[in-house]
Amino acid sequence: AQSVSQHNHHVILSEAASLELGCNYSYGGTVNLFWYVQYPGQHLQLLLKYFSGDPLVKGIKGFEAEFIKSKFSFNLRKPSVQWSDTAEYFCALTGANNLFFGTGTRLTVIP
Amino acid sequence: DTAVSQTPKYLVTQMGNDKSIKCEQNLGHDTMYWYKQDSKKFLKIMFSYNNKELIINETVPNRFSPKSPDKAHLNLHINSLELGDSAVYFCASSQVGRGQSTFGSGTRLTVV
Asked: Which domain CATH number covers A74?
């Protein structure tokens, strides 16, 4: 069965700190992986995606994620966070005709 | 142009009422979804429609019924609303084989 796990429920960082949010998945076939971001009071937006090819994918706003097949992971990173990165981050996996979401990680960036 | 639009954005209603949330997409996608986001921000798939056929129906109460007049629309009708139905409901669409979904802005439903 497909599943997505995000073990960090709430992460608090100071501005300029480096960020890494964990995402692990369970799926028996070829995976498509995504990170979505939800800013306070707004709808979900696609941050980045991995379908195939280079396992290091670049997204918007300086975010990147690395697909490590052997670890079933797709962690999200940013070298230096800003206050405006405060949001909820969701890792997701496609399976059949559906998306499976992790439970989300709340990021709070302190100025 | 809004790719996936939901109406209304906010909905406050009393227990026992029947309400509908509308969703329209202009992306030409062939699959549409309804997700429920609870107070803990957890997203759960409720329904998925592909070419006007229900292809995934999670174990949600039968008070919830999706209605799709055409592949650009997927409305969510809820009967006999309960307090526990309070949540944000997101509509989304995607194209088979591409995986990536585009989300609407959400409808915040509050049942009092």
From this structure: 2.60.40.10
**CA dist B34 → A62, B16, B20, B31, B102 (Å):** 30, 21, 12, 11, 12
Hey, are the CB atoms on B100 and A34 less than 8 Å from each other? yes
For B10-31, how does the pLDDT look when each residue is reduced to its tens digit (9 = 90+)? 999 999 999 999 999 999 988 8
Class of domain B4-111: mainly beta
Segments forming the whole domain that contains residue A48: 3-110
Report the mean per-residue pLDDT for chain B: 87
Nearest of B100, B102, B95, B85 to residue B21 by alpha carbon: B85
Best residue of B101, B102, B105, B108 to probe chain A, by most A CBs closer than 10 Å: B101
Domain count along chain A: 1
**Pairwise CB contact (< 8 Å): A42 & B33:** no
In single-letter form, the type of residue at position A14 comes to: S
